[in-house]
């Protein structure tokens, strides 16, 4: 595998792993290698796709394992004591590269 492909894969993986330090590092590396914006954006899109797919599968797993739990739509990381209802936010990319 050449360095270009290795860094593109690492960039996409850092997105799906939610690793900002990794993302920053690998973004610098792909820019040093003078990869095109199109190549960089595609690697990030693949990472977002993997991340979103994993999120959807987690919701399916939660529904299967906790069928009594109501999943309504939007939820944040804020903890709310005694809350029985969880809302899930569909991921919408907020970055425009």
What would you say this structure looks like, in words?
The chain has 97 residues and is mostly helical. The protein has a domain at 3-67. It contains three helices and two strands, in the order H-H-H-E-E. The chain has helices at residues 3-16, 20-32, 37-65; strands spanning 70-71, 85-86. A two-stranded parallel ribbon has the order 1-2. Helix 1 runs parallel beside helix 3 (37-65). It is elongated and about 50 Å long.
Quick summary of this structure?
The protein is mainly α. 58% of the residues lie in helices and 4% in strands.
How many helix segments?
A: 3
Please tally the β strands and state the result.
2
Written as H for each helix and E for each strand, in order along the chain, the element string is HHHEE
Described by strand count, sense and barrel closure, the largest sheet is: 2 strands, parallel
* Category from helices, strands and their pairing: mainly alpha
């Amino acid at each position: 595998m050449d360095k270009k492909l290795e860094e593109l894969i690492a960039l996409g993986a850092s997105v799906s792993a939610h690793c900002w330090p990794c993302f920053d590092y690998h973004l610098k590396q792909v820019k040093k290698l003078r990869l095109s914006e199109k190549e960089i954006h595609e690697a990030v899109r693949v990472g977002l796709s993997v991340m979103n797919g994993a999120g959807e599968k987690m919701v399916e797993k939660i529904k299967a394992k906790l069928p009594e739990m109501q999943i309504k739509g939007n939820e944040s990381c804020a903890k709310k004591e005694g809350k029985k209802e969880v809302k899930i936010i569909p991921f919408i990319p907020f970055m425009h590269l």
